[in-house]
Each structure stands twice: as structure tokens, then as C-alpha cells.
Amino acid sequence: MQKDIVLSVKGVTKSFGGLKALSKINLGIGKGEIYGLIGPNGAGKTTLFNILTGIYTPNQGTFNLDGKDLAGLKPHLIVKAGLARTFQNIRLFGNMSGLENVMVGFHVRTKTGVMGAVFRHYRAREEETNLRNKSKSLMDYVGLDPELTQPSTTLPYGDQRRLEIARALATNPKVIALDEPAAGMNPTETAGLRDLLVRIRRDGITILLIEHDVKLVMGLCDTVAVLDYGKKIAEGEPKEIKANPDVIQAYLGGELS
Amino acid sequence: MLGSVYALVALGYTMVYGILGLINFAHGEVVMIGAMVVLTMIGFLSGFPAPLSNGAILLFAVITAILVCSMLAFLIERVAYRPLRNAPRLAPLITAIGMSILLQNIAMIIWGRQYKTFPDLFSTVSYSFGGANITNVQVFIIIISILIMSALLLTINFTRIGRAMRATAESPQIASLMGVNVNYIISLTFVLGAALAAVAGVLVFANYSVAHYSMGFMLGLKAFTAAVLGGIGNMAGAMLGGILLGLIESIGAGYISDFTGGFMGSHYQDVFAFLVLIGVLVLRPTGIMGERVADRT
Q1: A229 and A163 fall within a common domain
Q2: In a domain, A235, yes or no
Q3: Position A88 in a domain
Q4: CB neighbourhood size of A215 (10 A)
Q5: Please, which of A30, A102, A189, B106 could form a disulfide with A3 given CB 3.0 to 4.6 Å?
Q6: What is the sign, positive or negative, of the torsion defined by CA atoms of A135, A141, A145, A148?
Q7: Are A144 and A136 in contact (CB under 8 A)?
């Protein structure tokens, strides 16, 4: 199967002191797919996300998005290149309203600088109105009420997760990386999330998904990679993964046999 | 009047604190440099072959002061704070104090030790209503301060750059992961604060007609008090704190002699600012408008 690769990770290695968190990870994420990344706790999934989004620089290896090498770039430049993320523990701007959080996401795709802010010329105001409308429709898209004015940390948990997704989508990414979006959700919320992810994929955005909810991953992803102790032990379609003895050994513990 | 100047300077403290969690003790010195640059520029422009109107001279001088102070603040951040961004919090605090002393001494070398007087560009007119006296300079100061502060509040709350600043204040890391260039925003915050400080420097200088290389120290401390009073890190709080502190000082200085039966005179004015500082820190450390205990270690 020949995939059109959008995000390619080559030989990424990261150690913290003597601990090898990731060793020689290779991934090829195809355009428009939902790519699942699973593995036991401490397998290095979030470390990989942190490398991909520029928080850490890899010791070795590189990764590129649509052919553009991103390794070692500052986080905001990676976002600009088209890779956005959400967080395992929700990290919203708590003092801002939901709408404002989304508007921050648009920062990188808008231009008005200091002069525009000070003199508020026509173009700056137009951009601001435009931005507000686009942010509202994004909130609508993820299923949130755009008129919510309360500080974002007081929103219900599931809504906060959706808001993070909206904020990441606002950066107009090619690939959106979701770090355990279903964590702590009840079954109804998870079902809603699943619909949202399907809609995002349909709109042409590639999804890289870390998730513990095995049912969600197996039902949703086109490709799944499994990490264990910083190594990739398997990659393939969900049904291959389910049948892979290494995976069952390392992670699923035989449950799905 | 005095209050609106405190408010302008306090905004500089509070913006930097809000974003970096750092008390920029060199901020008062930026105010002083602003006043000094205006003095030099007025002297320079007055000697121009083609005579300029006094208003034009003042305007050019103030613009120069804003530019110089902005560049200065940019450099201070680059040299003294950015290398210590991830150091323990005590380290940048010490460099801030060091920077403050350094700037004072540089100013002393450039402008000398003597008190400088403000050139007579315009005549002071005094108005009186309801028993209170106010000069045209003071009216001007109040108007300018209000204009600047409203512009700043609008910028912070309703523009792209302002949003990026608030996002950075909440969490620099998350802001950068959402595509905000954090270093740019931090530099910008210092520059904006310095521009306000430059204006404040000119206003103080115009009002008291004296400038001195050490004038920034006391002014900075009082503005810091104002920022703490309002709730440090909170912009509206800084403005309110500044104005309140100005009122407390003036009223206190006016009546202290009556309270103490002539034992203490109005030259004890400075006492009030620091009584307020101690009072706030003991009774309500988060200040009037501070909600969270601003601590980010």
C-alpha cells in the first residue's frame, strides 16, 4: 500500500540522562488518515509529541512535514508550518473566554502588528472582525456555544477538550496531534468526540492520535503504531495490530485474543 | 495628578510581572532616562538654526525619549533577563537591581550630578476651583495619562497582539505551542512599558521642573507600590493603584502636620507610600484587584 506521506519521522532518538525515552522511531503518517499511537504508560508517546511540536529537540533523527524539515525549530514556527496539538492535561488559557482561546489559535495566521493595534486602521479592524467570526464558526464546528463568555477553566471537562481541539484547528494545521483527547470522558462524550474526529478527517486534516481507549483507536484509526519502552514494536492496520503477538505481549496483555 | 504618573509607571512593572513573573527594578531608571533625554533634546533643538515652535520642540523631544527608552528596555531584557529566563527567580531579581544601579551611574556620568531644571517652554497657569489648585501642566498630564491608559487597555483586550500578550502571561510554553512567538511578545512588553515610562518621565519632569540621576529610584519604588496595591500583574489594578496611591500621598502630606500637631511636616510625604506597601503586603498580598496569588515557580 503506497501512502501519500504528510508527516514523516525518521530515526528520532531522545534520551534524558541515561534513560532512552525514544530510540530510532520511524513513522510515516499518510495524508488524510487518522494515525493512532498507542503504548503502555511511559512508552514515550508524549515525548514524541513534545519533540514533534518543538518542546524538545531530538538527539538524533529528523522529521518533516510535507517535505519541510522541522527538527530543531522553535514551537511557534512548527505551528506555522502546519502542525498543531492538544494536551494530555488540558492546557487552556484559563483567564480567557472560550472564544478568546480560539482567537489566540488564529494568531499565527493573522498579521496585524503593533502599529495596527495602536492605530486601528481599516485593515486591522476588518481582520479582527473576520477573526471573531471565524473563531465562532470553529467553536460551532466542534460543538461549543460560541457565545460563552465565562473563563474557559470553568467549562465542563468535555467542553474544555473540545475547546482545545478548536484552538488547535484555528492554527489551520495540516496535521493535528491529539494527546489523549478521550481521557476522562464518559461514553457519550467519547462518542461525540469520535464524530468530531471523523468530521475533521473528512475536512482534509490529518490526525495523529495518542489514546488509551483501545476501542476508540481500533475503531477509528486507519493505521496504528505501537510504542513500548521507546521503541516502535508494530505498525499497521488495526486488525493486524490486534493480531500481533508482540503487541499483545507488551500492551494488550492477551485481552483481545 | 501624581497618581496618573504612578499609574503609567506601575503599568510597566505590572505588564512585565504579568508575563515573566519578574520585578523589573530597572524600570524606574528608564523613567529617569526618559526625562534626561527630553532635557538634552530640548537643549539641542532650541539651538536649531531654523527656530521651531515650543510645541514642536517638546513633541520631538518626547518622541526621541520614547524611542531611546524603548531601545534601552529592549537591550535590558536581552542582556540582563533573557539569559536568565530559566534560572531561579532570585537571579533575574538581582540582575534587575544591578541594572538599576548601572543605569543610575551611566546617567550620572552623562548628565552629571547636579539637579537639572526644566526649560521654560510654556508658562504655567494656575486655575482654582472649589478651593483646589491645579495648573495647566497638571491638566495636560491627566489628559495624556488617561488617553495612553485607555489605548493600552483597548490594545491588551481587543487586539491580536494583546491577546498574544495575555496568552503568554498565562503560560509562555502553551502560547508558543499555539503559534505565538514568545520572545517577540516579551520584547514588545518591555518596549511598551518603557514607552510609558518615557512619557511618565517627561510628565514628572515638566511638573516638578527638576530632574536628577537618582530620581527614578524613589519614583520606581512608589510605582511598584502602586502596582502591588492594585494587584501586581493586573493592568486595571495598576492604574487604580497608581491613582489611589497618588491621592493617599497628597492627602496625607497635606494633613500630616495637623495630625501630629506640627511635629511632622509635608516632607514626610514619602512615608505614606511605604506605609501603604507594608499594609497591603500584610493585609491583602494579592492587592485590590488581584484574584490569584500570582506565583509561578
Answers
A1: no
A2: yes
A3: no
A4: 12
A5: A30
A6: negative
A7: no
**Looking at the domain assignment, is residue A89 inside a domain?**
no
Query: Beta strands A206-210 and A175-179: pairing type?
Result: parallel
Total number of domains constituting chain A: 2
pLDDT one-digit tens code per residue, A99-146: 989 999 888 877 766 666 666 677 777 888 888 899 999 999 998 888
Nearest to A100 among B163, B173, B177 (CB): B163
Amino acid identity, residue A58? P
Q: Give the ipTM of the model, two decimals please.
A: 0.81
Question: Would you state the pLDDT for residue A36?
Answer: 92
Q: Final residue of a domain: which of A170, A189, A220? A: A170
Tell me, what amino acid is at A253?
A: G
Judgement on whether residues A256 and A179 belong to the same structural domain of the protein: yes
Same domain, A69 and A98: no
User: Which of A70, A107, A153, A171 is best to mutate for the B interface (most B CBs within 10 A)?
Assistant: A107
Contact residues on chain A for B179, CB-CB shorter than 8 A:
76, 79-80, 84, 105, 107-109, 171
Chain B nearest CA to A1, separation (Å): 33
Contact flag B177-A127 (C-beta cutoff 8 Å)? no
Domain ranges in chain B are 2-117+126-216
Ranges under pLDDT 50 in chain B: 293-297
Which pLDDT score, from 0 to 100, does residue A257 have?
42
Q: What is the pLDDT of residue A114?
A: 67
A112, B160: Cβ pair inside 8 Å?
yes
For A18-70, write each residue's pLDDT tens digit. 888 888 889 999 999 999 998 888 888 889 999 999 988 888 899 999 888 99
CATH number, domain of A56, equals: 3.40.50.300
Q: Do both A103 and A69 map to the same domain?
A: no
Judge if A230 and A218 occupy the same domain. yes
Contacts for B51 with CB less than 8 Å, ≥ 6 apart: none
Those residues whose C-beta lies under 8 Å from the C-beta of residue B154, and which sit 6 or more positions away, are none
Q: Which domain holds residue A129?
A: 94-170
Q: Are residues A107 and A31 in the same domain?
A: no
Of A124, A151, A170, which residue is a domain's last? A170
Report the distance separating Cα A75 and Cα A136, nearest Å. 25
Q: Do A26 and A10 touch, CB atoms closer than 8 A?
A: yes
